[in-house]
Fold:
Amino acid sequence: MSAVHSIDTSAEQDLTDGFHLIIDALKLNGLNTIYGVPGIPITDFGRMAQAEGIRVLSFRHEQAAGYAASIAGYLTKKPGVCLTVSAPGFLNGLTALAHATTNCFPMILISGSSEREIVDLQQGDYEEMDQLAIAKPLCKAAFRVLHAQDIGIGLARAIRAAVSGRPGGVYLDLPAKLFGQVMNAEAGKKSLVKVIDAAPAQLPAPDSIKRALDVLKSAKKPLIILGKGAAYAQADDAVKALVETSGIPFLPMSMAKGLLPDTHPQCAGAARSTVLKDSDVVLLIGARLNWLLSHGKGKAWGDAPKKFIQIDIEPKEMDSNVEIVAPVVGDIGSCVTALLDGMGKSWTKASSDWMSAVTTKRDDNIAKMAPKLRNNNSPMDYHGALGVLRTIIAERPDAMLVNEGANTLDLARGIVDMYKPRKRIDVGTWGIMGIGMGYCIAAAVETGKPVLAIEGDSAFGFSGMEVETICRYNLPVCIVVFNNDGIYRGTDVNPSGGSDVAPTVFVKGSRYDKMMEAFGGVGVNATSPDELKRAVNEAMDSGKPTLINAVIDPAAGSESGRIGNLNPQSVLSKKK
Structure:
């Protein structure tokens, strides 16, 4: 056990308590980092965990701590742990837990809570709330531990639920009294559980592999789409072998970029619209046919008939939007390896005419974009600023890239090439704002690599106070805030003529760099691509917490970035 908490002098027996049992259970299962916010009833638990060698990172807001835990789970394949206080703190963390579940990131939210007897009678305890009931609909599983002897089993169940099958978020409810419960130390040690094979391989049925290969053989214009599930699987060599053995062009979703380099000859990232429209057989690997892929139908997919093969660990994902003619259910590593074995040594590669057509379109699009990326305008536009950041990532392929925003996200996704797996982390399935600083902190902590964050000014505002956390822990994070004075653009005008600015407009000429300087970090104001490049390189070389205020032309953005079509339209507005 980690500590003898007290001595029962009458029986001369060693005792332990709930505090130490939770700590020992975490350490036994290799969960050595906690992201959270201290407060009643978990402040002492955080202190004790730190004393026992667990790294405890204290944030300014639980949502950012939760986002950090969620991406830690994605990067490590172990559940990221977020620790919060009860009620409001729990609710703040719950947004991140729902995000983790939606994105299939393993995460455990541990929250202190009020005692059951008070909650159930609604007697008005401090921060009283039935947290378990609220969490259940928003996560993969939820458990409450009432007795110290059940702590080991409770954490084991949470770990297994988080990482097995399709990963997701798990809530663990720990009432305040649990921490102080005392039991025999030896019995406590025996009650702990080291989880064995938490995410066992799930082998695909041989018939499903044969069916998939038969469909693939019939293709004249096949396409492989790689999703973030393929990156999470860490089956990098197998995925690369499948792509290259098949000779099929591949389209990476944003967090799958770098699974194979974006500069790979088969990468169709810059020919996305062409391959979606013209392909006849599409193999999805760890990607879902959700809104990010126009649900597998409609204008984006063109008129060419499509057959879909889908690899996913969740059987219910099949046929979610369109018919999947060859479902392959299992973990991605096992499924891809089985496909490779089935292909053998004599597989006929995809048509060279098809690959050539894709390559021509890709190269044309890249050539058209190139002059935009070389401009040195001041104030900057998005292309000029992202052009220099693109070069920096090419020179530093090991760096972690965090990206969020509207235009800042959409354009960076297409412009900044990635070269290694799991280096690009972004807003994920929901396309949300606010993940930035939490992701930066976890990326630095979990990988030990320098982090470059490309942030829209609106997106940065959701978690900007966490720059103090970055400075406090002296993390090698360089944040570039694309500051165009507003949401989408900073040029909107109040249509009423009143004194309030338009809803999408921020303070003109804001200096976010001064905010970083206030906490002892480095702040830089960059007004041209050349200044931006110098500042980012200096920050990445130094490893010092840095925030660069990148001054972007307020008129440079577009409404909602590339998803403006999702805005609802009224027939009334069209009649005016």
